[in-house]
Structure formats: structure tokens, C-alpha cells
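Quick start: read one record
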Amino acid sequence: MVTVAAFAGDAVTRLICSCFGLIYMWELEHSLRQHGIEMGGWVLPPPGDPWCDSVDECDEEYAGAPIEDRGAAHAFLPYDLEVPIERIAESMEHPVEAYQLTLLCAVASLIPNQTRLVVDSFLGTDAPPILWGGLVGEPGCGTYHIIHDLTRPITVLRALEGFFSQQPDAVERFLSQQPDRSFLVVQDDLASFLWDIGPSQSDKGAKCIQWLKLHSGNGAMVRSGAGERVFVQHPSVSIIGRIWPPTFRGFFQRDDLLTDLLWKSFVWVRVHLMSNFNTCADPPPIPSYLYGLLKETYSRIRSSQPIQHVLSRVGQQYWREWCMEVREVVSRETDRRIRFSLSGMPEQAARVTLVLHRLDEAFIDRQPSLVVPADTLLRAIGFVYRLQKHAAHIRNELWGTRRL
């Protein structure tokens, strides 16, 4: 049983005086109880009302914009990370989303695996800190350096723990030995991983189903190094890898439900070769100060405590509004693969919101707050929309107008 602390003080007085506030608190408590969480203890709130979101002039400027554009009032990542990453991406002619996605997958793998974000207290909808990402690009386009530069601090941390592999075959041993920790799979050849876990006649999709269970964050049986089967209640495995366009097409031209679910579980970014591509020149490593920022931030996230977060009241209103819009878009889409991608956007946005929140708080060395502000959700929604454009671009580039 996990216990979370609620806020007291002036904020509670306002909530008690507000009928809606009381209803919201009841919804929150009821939702958390469904997830085995009891509200208990009272601590002083941070400055301002923890259940409401402050609105600045930038937010007001974008208030009438489509919900996917409202997050444009804020930098997507913490500013001191965003600026150097944008400069590197621009110098390499890379989409900045390739770096942002890789960074978020790395951060997700450091968040304690019991952490969750309740995005809808009416329905009890929550999200785990699990992200699967893939960079689609030709050899030499720089995807190797993007991934390894941004995950190198994690590789060092894992080595200090005695885990020198970040390959899929190390997942079960890691989870059986450290069931409260999260794991990052770094896959240089994502195609081989997909073919290995993909549906096959020999295992009738059993391996694929096992990995899809890991993506859900629900309980799973794993094998320890000694061959014993161990139940892990909250497995948390994130993935980042790179894949060559022809092999990407070769795998995802398969026509079956499990392949569709794998497509939906990943988010993709297309990375092209530079216009002045030189096969002999490696891109420069990331600046030492950026590596230092990443190392310190990753360490803080890794040492943080599991928390059952809840999206703010305004954020939940945005969430319900946006989910209705997504359902309408899905109903109009005729391409099955794109329809699967679109239908997965709300879940992906919820997960990105959680990971962004923990990154924001760790970067400024602050204890993560229970309530996640609405602007974090808006940033996540905008990011997921940009990723969806990459998926549609990849789909059209590799398959053209032929519909699956």
C-alpha cells in the first residue's frame, strides 16, 4: 500500500468552501484508492493553489489556439537543456525531436517503476513511466551518436551497478535482481530486436505478447539468472534504438494484429542524411557541460522516490477535451496503420507528461510535486503531434499511397 500526502493550508480552505473542490478531492481519493493508494497525512502546499494552474501572458496568447499548439508558450525541455540540444540538432540538420525522444526514453528508464500519473480521476486512467522510441535513418545519418551521447551517463550508472549490457537479453535478469528499478534497452539494430520478438508460427506470438505486457507496465513473470521464474509487479522497461528504412519497411509490411500493436507501442522519428554528408567524418561529441548536466540530472531522477502523481484540475479538463478530438480524427482516418498511431496518442502523451514532470523537477533539484500542471500536458501533446507527423511521413515515404 502506497501512501501519498495531500495539501493543506489556505488551499484546503478554498477547496472546502468550493463545492467543486470537494467533488474533485473525492474523485481524486476514489481514483487513487482504485490503484491501492490511500490519501493520508497533511503537509503545507507549495506557493499558490496546488489544484489550480497559474496563467501567464504567454498562456493567454495561445489560449484560443488548437490544444496541440498551446504548449508553444513554453520550452519543451528545461531551457538549459533545450538550447544546446536545439543548436546541435540544427548544426547536424537533424530534427530536434530525435534528441528529445532519446532523452525522454533515457529519463523514463530512471524513474522508479511504481511511479504513475493519474490523468483522469473520473475513470482512474493512469500512465507508467515507459517509453519506446525508434530513430529511422540511413547508416551514417547520425542516429548512433544521438542515442549513445544522450544515454552514455546511464551506461556508466548501470556499469557501477554491475550491469554492463543494455540489450534485450539482460532485461529479465535486471528485473529479477532489481524489481523496483527501471531499465533502458539501447538497441543499435532495432530491426533484429523486432524480428526476434515479432509474431511467428513457432511461438504463436508469445514473445511479442510478453514484450507488450512489459510496455503496459503491468505485472509480468521473468526468469532470473538462475532460471527461476520471478513475478515483478511493476516492470518498467523503456527502449530507444535505430533502424534502417528498408528493414523498417520489411518488418512493418506484415499484416497482423500483433505487428499493429508493436507499431502503436513505439514512437518514431525520421532522421535524414546531412546535405554535405561525409562518410569519413564523425559528428562532434556533445559539449562536456551538457554531458555534466545530463549526468547530474539523471542521478537525481534515479535517486528520487516513487510518487502517484495526479494531473491538475485544469489539465484533466484539457485531457478530456483532447481525447474527444483524437477519437474524431481516428474515426475519419482510412489508413489502418496511421489509425493505430493516432489511437495511441493519448497514452503516449500521458506518459510523456509524467516523464517531463519528473525531468523538470529533477533539473532544478526539487522534490517532485504530487500535482502535475496543465502546461506540462500541453507540452507533451504538442510533442506527440510532432511525432505523429514523423510517423505519417515515414508511412508515406516507405509505402506511398498504398494503404495497409
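The longest strand covers residues 37-43.
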